[in-house]
Amino acid sequence: MTTTALDRPRSFWPALTRDPMMFTGLALLVALVGLAMLAPLITWHDPAALAPRMRLKPVSAEYWLGTDSLGRDLFSRVLYGGRLSITLAALVSVISVCAGLLLGLLAGYFRQLDAVVMRIIDGIMAIPGLLLAIAMVALGGATIPTMVTAIAIPEIPRVARLVRSVVLSVREEPYVEASLGMGTATWRVLWRHVLPSTINPLVVQATFICASAILIEAVLGFLGLGFPPEIPSLGSIISEGRPFFQRAPWIVLFPGVFLALLILSVNLFGDALRDRLDPRMARQRKD
Amino acid sequence: MLNLIFKRVLAAIPVMLVVATVVFLLLRLAPGDPARVIAGDMASEEAVAQVRAEMGLDRPLPTQYALAMGALLQGDLGSSIISKDPVTTLIGQRLGPTMALAICAILLTIFAAIPLGVFSAWWHKGLFDRVTLAVTVLAFSVPAFVVGYLLILAFSVKLNWFPVQGYAGLASGFGTFLYHMALPTITLATVFVALITRITRGSMLEVLGEDFVRTARAKGVPERYVLYRHALRNAAVPIVTVIGLALTTLISGVVVTETIFNIPGVGRLIVDAVLARDYPVVQGTILFFSFVYVFINLAIDLLYVVLDPRIRY
Fold it and tell me: Is A69 at the interface with chain B, CB within 8 A?
């Protein structure tokens, strides 16, 4: 049996070199996140600096990715936009995982709550997440708190369902029954025995939430509902570039490619993490 | 069978009630005051109060809720603030293009993804399988609008094979319809082809390892029959489930695709309503899409019985 050894984190690094998908995903992710986070150090143009005479210029040594319709440097705008997308995605992941974890633990452990919480969750899951986000952003305005809430709410039911399913299987385990039989307080059983089993699937879920949050922010921007133009985000850059698409396709395509690579790297990393950390899912996908 | 249908329909009612309540509450409790937004930034307090009274927003929340639910039961989704038309009429006018787009995308998905998934599973770990797997991971990560603009750049701007934008209904002839529909369909279907290919492959791999498949092969059943009659039929339930669950993604995709290609469908309706701050239309359209989702998943639940006679409720 090699599975027990594989589950340990220290076998992570050797595994990385054996698994080309995971290696590609992680390398790409580190590179893109690094570029985005270090944007102020890497770029030499202010992403908001207007240069009307330099508008719609193609790729050059001075403007690595060309300029947009107001002569702003697309390279710095894409990197700053990426930084915003990544920060937003991280916030959405943390919030939806925490809220979903709490709901899932409650629903899974307290039978009386289960029926009510699950019906609400079924209802929210029937509403297309993007439409819910569109409506909330339209009402609340495109600020960071509204944006984070709007993208996080549709993700919470998925996390809650996942946690609930783990809780339902763990609570039947003999060691949990034994612990309860010995008079351990409920919150302590949840903390010591139930919570640790949810961590691996949650880490995997969090990466997929990141990918989806990056995408939804971009789609909102694309539809013209994203952050105002002063704040460069991948979605708003693409949206502003749309009217100039035939003359200057790079304004749409470069942020689009950055976005696609970012989502691809998160997905590749998430797939590989799932195979490593979540044996249940990995068995289902066993090739 | 009738009993089964009745039970399933009954189970869908609380879900729809929750959907209606959540949409109602979200639009009321979200930060921002619809009346102020509709009246405009320059409006006086009196003007805002008047808009609020016109929309019934000055009444207590439970009263508003009861009124909205009562109207909903009668099939009334409210009326547009701008055109004053009932939301159901607006949706009805725009339903054609959206249905056409969705059906084309689902057909393309079924005819592309299922054979791809079946053959990947059959040539498991072969070159075809590896290439398909890599392409699906890539296709799954590229946002629909990036796919759409790349297609426009290649096939409309450079090659001039297809129009950049626009829509033509079936009434203008099947050829014209397809000419306008080709790029939007591919744009919308890309993610689904990737998703369904992977699910089909995974589900087929499981079934191909089963004893009855080995027996069929040992009996000398032609491989084509083994794959499509024996294996695919048994692998169908997870595939159909995922097609149903992926509908919310399809609906989101419709909104984006209709915006890229300027198709006058229900997806465009919601975007236009949001940009014009026409809240009743936003709320009505979200409810409409959510109910469609619930209904189609209900239909899929019933379809299971046809696909897998072992399933009984």
Answer: no
Longest dimension (CA), chain B: 84
Instruction: Identify which of A233, A210, A256, A239 has the alpha carbon closest to the alpha carbon of residue A36.
Output: A233
What share of chain A in percent tops pLDDT 70?
A: 82
- For the domain covering A72-278, report its CATH number: 1.10.3720.10
Query: Side chain identity at B282, as an amino acid letter?
Result: V
Each residue's pLDDT tens digit, B187-202: 999 988 998 888 888 8
Does A284 lie at the interface with B, CB-CB under 8 angstroms?
Answer: yes
ipTM: 0.79
Please indicate if any CB of chain B lies within 8 Å of the CB of A32: no
β strands within A6-156, DSSP E = none
Q: B60 phi and psi, to 5 degrees? A: -65, 150
Distance between CA A131 and CA B283 in Å, rounded? Answer: 10
> Which of B98, B137, B149 to mutate: most A Cβ within 10 Å?
B149
Query: CA-to-CA distance for A93 and A152, rounded, in angstroms?
Result: 7
Helix (H, G, I), strand (E, B) or coil at A67: strand
As a whole number of angstroms, the distance between CA B310 and CA B313 comes to: 10
Whether residue A131 and residue B252 make contact (CB cut-off 8 A), yes or no, is yes
Task: Give the pair of three-digit tokens for residue A174.
Answer: 């003999």
User: Quick check: A231 contacting B, CB < 8 Å?
Assistant: no
Instruction: Output the six-digit token pair for A265.
Output: 């790297």
What is the reported pLDDT for B146? 85
Tokens of A177: 């029954």
Which string of DSSP letters, residue by residue, matches B193-244? HHHHHHHHHHHHHHHHTSHHHHHHHHTT--HHHIIIIIIHHHHHHHHHHHHH
- Residue B27: which of A123, A124, A135 has the nearest Cβ? A135
Q: Do B22 and A123 touch (CB under 8 A)?
A: yes
**Would the pTM of this model clear 0.90, i.e. be above it?**
no
Rounded CA separation A28/A21 (Å) = 11
pLDDT of residue A16: 65
Measuring CA to CA, which residue among A83, A74, A68 is closest to residue A36? Answer: A83
Amino acid occupying residue A228: P
Q: Which of A82, A106, A117, A206 is nearest to A155 (CA)?
A: A206
Chain B, window 107-146: residues with a beta carbon less than 8 angstroms from a chain A beta carbon = 124-125, 137-138, 140-143, 145-146
The region of weakest confidence among A65-74, A92-101, B150-159, B268-277 is A65-74
d(CA B232, CA B208): 9
**pLDDT tens digit sequence for B35-81:** 776 777 677 778 888 877 777 777 777 888 888 888 888 878 777 87
Interchain CB contact of B196 with A (< 8 Å): no
* pLDDT bucket at A5, cuts 50 / 70 / 90: very low
Give the residue extent of every domain in chain A. 72-278
pLDDT score at A12: 59
